[in-house]
Task: structure prediction
Amino acid sequence: MQARSTDLGRRAAVLAVGTVIFLLVVLPVFRLGYVVWTEGSTQLDEVLGRPGLGEAVLNTVLLAVAVTVTAVPLGTLVALGLRRADVPGRGWWRFAMLLPVLVPQFVLGYSWTQAYGRAGFTDTILGLVWPSVLGPWGVWAVLVVNTVPLTYLFVAVGLATRAEPNLERAARASGGDPASVLRHVTLPLLRPSIAAASVLSFVLTMESFAIPQVMGTPAGFTTVTTTIYRDLSLGSDPLSFVEALTLALLLVALTVLVVIPADLWLGPRLRVTRVANPEGAPIVTPRGAAGRWIAAGLGGYLLLGVVLPLIALVTAAITPAVGVSPSPGNWTLDNFRFVVNARNAEALGRSALLAFAAAGLLTVLGGAVAVLERRRAGRVMASLVTVTLVLPGSTLAVALLITYGRWIGGTLTLILLAYLAKLWAFAHRPISGALDRLAAGEMQAARASGAKALTAVRTVALRPLAPALLGAWLICFVTALHEVTMSSLLYGPDSDTLAVVVLNSKELGRIGATAALSVLLTLVMLLPALPLWVLIRRLQSPRHPRAGGARSLAHAR
Amino acid sequence: MPGPGFSCHGRWRLLTLLPLTLLPLGCGAGSGGGEGEEITLYTCVSDETIQPIISGFESDNDGSEVKLFRAPTGDLNARVAGDVRSGGLKADVIWGCDPLTMQGYVDQDLVGGWSPEGAADIPEQFRTDDYVGVAVLYMVAVYQDGAPAPSSWSDLAGTDYDSVAVSDPNVAASALGALGYFSQEPDYGLDFYSTLEEQGAQQVGTPDEVTAGVAQGAYDAGITIANSAYLAKDSGSPIDIVWPEPGAIAIYGPIALATDSADSTLAKDFISYVVSEAGQQVVAEAGSYPTLPGVEGPEIPADAPVVYPDWPKIDATKDSLLSDYQQIFGG
Result:
C-alpha cells in the first residue's frame, strides 16, 4: 500500500516538475522556433550561410572549450588546495575565492581594460601594458577568472558533501601516496561535481555576451552572442529579428548536442551509490611549505584577477572624469551622490526582492530536478533546464514576452519567470553533484520508523545537502541581482529594476557613475554574506550532533 | 525528529509566501495609475532627457500619465518585436534615436500616418510624413589635449594620429549614419575607413566608449557624438572637440504615433508637446540638441558646419554597406 502511494507521489512529482519545465523552457523555446519557422524559413539558408557566422560559431565553441579546460582544473585545484589545513588564512581564502562572482559581470571587462589596457592602471603606474587585453586572449582570461570561483564552489561543495575521509585515510594507511589517493579515491568521488562544473562552464561561456562584446569586438573577435546583439540592434527590420532568433536557436542546438549526450551517458556512470553516511574527521595535513605556496598562488590569482581591476574601478568611481589623474586632490564622491537616490534605491529593493524569491524557488526547483533525474522518467529534465541557460538573455526575454507577454507583460512576475528559466540549471547542477551523499537506506529507514515524507526530507536529507543548497542559493541570488539583459527588456512602468539604473547610467556615458554603481553593488553583495556566515556558524556549533554537515558548510562558503 | 537550528516550518512558509509577495507588485505594475487617461511611451532617449519631458507634459495635462519603457535601441527593437508577436504593440508613442529604426517600424505599419501641426516648423531634413525629428545627435571629432586638432574628417586618416577610435555601425545608429554619409561622399567613400584602419584605427562599441578611450589616453582621437564629448570635457576630461569640415554629421531622433493609437488624443497631445517650442526647450535644457530652429541647445561652435546623411539611400544600401565595412574592420 505504502509502495503504491510512494509510486503515485513520484509520478505526481514528475508531472508537476515536468509541467513547470514545459511552461518555463519547452513552450518559450518552441515559440521561438515557431517564429523562425513561420517568418524566416525561406531565408534560413541565407541566415546560416552569411559571411562571418562560421567564424563566430567556431570562436564561440573554441572559447567555451578553452575556458572550460582551464577553469575546471583551476577550480578543482583551488578546492583541493583549500582543503589542506596548512594553508595560512584558509577561512579568508575560501571567502576571497568568491569575490570575482561578487563583481558584476557588466563591469568586469571594463575594469580589466582599465587595469591592463593602454593608458590603464598598470600602464600609468608601471608602464606595463597587455596589448592582447582587447581580443580573444583577454576575453578568455576574464572569463576564466569569472568562471574559476564557480567551478571552485562546485568542487568545494562536492568535497563537502561527497568526500570520504575514512576511505582516504584507509588508502593512505594501505600505503597509497597522496597522489594515488587523490587519483583513485578523491577525484572519482568528485566526478559528478567536476562534470557539473564542466557543463555549466561550457554553457555559460557559450552564452556570455558582455565580456566578448567589450573586449573582443574592438579586436574583430566575434561570437554568436555578439552577432545576435548586432542583429537586435538593427532589428526594427523583421528579418534581422528573425536572424537573431535563429542564431539563438543555433546556440541551443549546439548546447543540446553537447549537454544531452553528456547527461544521458555520463550522468548515471558518474554517480556513486552510498550504503551509509560517511563519517570521520577531516584529514589533517601537517604544516609545511606547500600550504604557503598555495596561499601565495591564490594571492597572485586574486591580485591580478580581482584586486587590480577593482582598484581601477574604484579609481574611476572617485575621479570626476575619465583621464583626470586619480591623485587624492582630485578625489570626489560626486559619482556616488549621482547614483544614490530614492528612485535607484527602490529599483535596488525590487531587484533584491526578485533575486531573493528567485534564489529560493530555484533551490527548490533545482533540488526537484536533481532528485527526479535519477529515474528514467526524469532523466532528460536536467538537459532541458540547461537549454534556457544557454539562450542569450535578450532572446530568452523575447521568448517569454512572446509566450506570456499578453497576460503579464511589464510585470515583476514575468521577470521572475525569466530568472527561473535562465538560472534553473545554476541551482540544479550543484545539488545534483551532491545528492549522492544521501544514502537511500536512511530515507527509507526514517519513513519506516514513522517519519512523514517532509520530516524525513528535513531530518535526513536537508542537513547533509545544506552546503549544496546554500551554494545553489548563493549563486542564484548573486546572478539574479546582477542580471541586466532580461530585466531591462521585460520591465514595465513601475517595475524598473537595478538593470534599468545600470543602463541609465551607462547610456548617459557617465563612466564614473557606472563605476560608482558597480562599487556599491559589490558592497551590497557582501551583505547577504553576513547572515550566511551567521547561519554557517550556527550549524557549526557543537549543539549540532552531525559534524558532517557543519564541516561541509565550511567547505561550501 | 526535529532538527536543531532554525524552524523548517518557518522556512517552507517563507518559500511559499515569496512568490505571493511578488504578485501585488506584478499586478500593480500593469494596472492603471489614477483616474486620468494614460499612454505608454517606448523610447531609447536618455533618462536625463525623457524624465523632464514627461514631467512637463504631465504638469500641463493634469491627471494624465505617461508610462515609460526606456531601453537602448537593440532592446527597444526586441521589445517591439515581442509585443507584435504577443497581441500587438503596447506603446502609443515611440521616440526613437535614429530614422532607420523608425522607418523599420513604419514599414511594418506599427507607427506613422500622422504628424502634429507643429511639425511644419521643423526643418524638412528632420521629418517625413510618418514621423518628425525632435532631437539631434551630432557626430564630431574628439582628440586628446596636446594632439593636433583635425580640421577636416580626412585629417583623422593622416599620420598625425597613431590610433583613432570609431564606433561600431552594427551597434550604434549614429555610427551607421556616419558610415552612410562618408560612403556617399565622393571625397571619402569606404576608402576613408580603409585608410583609418591601415593607420591603426580601432573599432569600439558605442560613441561613449570612443569618448572614454580618448579621454583616458588609449586613443589619440575619435569620432563620437557631441553630447558625450562635451559632457566629458565639462567634467574635466583632457580632451577637445572639433566640428570638422565638411561638417558634423546630424542624426535625428524621430517621434511617431502608433497606428493602433490613431484615436488617442493624449498620445497626439504628447507628440505635439515634444515638437512644440515648450517641449523643445525642455529637450534643450536636458542637454539634447533640439530640432526646432530658434531654440538654443547645448554648445555648438559659431559657424560650425553640419551635414545631413541621405537616410532613404542608407536604408536601401544598409546591408551591402555593413558587409563592405565588415571587410575592413572585421567582426
Notes: The longest strand of chain B covers residues 132-144.
